Amino acid sequence: MRAMTPRVAVRTRGLTKEFRGFRAVDAVDLEVSEGSVHALVGPNGAGKTTLFNLLTGFLPPTSGSITVFDEDVTGRPPERVARRGVARSFQITSLFETLTSREHVELALAGRTREGFRFWRSEKLLARRRTRVDELLDQVGLAALADKPVGLLAYGRKRALELSLVLALEPRVMLLDEPTAGMGTEDVDRTIELVRRIATGRTVVFVDHNMHVVGSLADRVTVLQQGRVLAEGGYDEVRADVRVITAYLGRAEHA
Ligand SMILES: Nc1ncnc2c1ncn2[C@@H]1O[C@H](COP(=O)(O)OP(=O)(O)OP(=O)(O)O)[C@@H](O)[C@H]1O
After folding, report:
1. Which parts of the sequence belong to the ABC transporter domain (predicted)?
2. ipTM
3. Ligand 1 centroid to residue 29 C-alpha, Å
4. Whose CA is nearest to atom 26 of ligand 1?
5. Distance between CA 38 and CA 218 in Å, rounded?
6. In ligand 1, which atom is closest to the CA atom of 20?
7. Can you list the domains of the chain with their CATH numbers?
8. pLDDT tens digits, residue range 174-228?
């Protein structure tokens, strides 16, 4: 039997973003396989966030191209890219402190589906919506805290809620910007488990500075430095790459 080659979920070719002549992302060729978990790492200022913003349409590229499942989305606005199944989380999201987790997820679902806020017109739709809300909260471990105002939740739980809001969009490709930023060890480990769970059947691209997180989750790692791809491969391969070691050590020396 012939082994199936996975499709390419996201591909960039020569992707470049200049800010007044400064190349924050410089001729990046990236290939993310469908169903894989792909990490973007690199020292501060390497261009990771800018690349995320390009992939999701939040910034138009200066040159180069982006395809999502072979469809060209170069220069498309965020809502058009989102319609191709790409959803992202942010480093910092604003949640509504007085609303509960359940209310947040309900709003995310109402915003996403065609029924919008008309679900109350039909008992059937209402029941289906409730089940989906429960599933999403359960998936991120928030079932027991669903009716607490978000302002009372610990930081790690708020980040889990943010993930459920991304999941509510039912993305084919999830982009997670520093999912463990600012977390203590316990929350980091919970988040690793959570991302692993939600990555099943999906493509995930994430940025994280924590190498334990990268090593635990990533099938492939792309290392950026000064906007360029410095190295790419499996975690162990990349970690042993002299150019990567030098890039990180060089930074430590100058810190
Ligand atoms: N809107 C902008 N205008 C001008 N320069 C920018 C802009 N956005 C980013 N840059 C510059 O582009 C470079 C890459 O920034 P970016 O935020 O993408 O890096 P990063 O790898 O995400 O860094 P960090 O790990 O600190 O989040 C930096 O030198 C930054 O100052």
Report:
1. 10-251
2. 0.96
3. 18
4. 44
5. 5
6. 4
7. 1-85+171-255 (3.40.50.300), 94-170 (no CATH)
8. 999 999 988 889 889 999 999 999 999 899 999 999 999 999 999 999 999 999 9
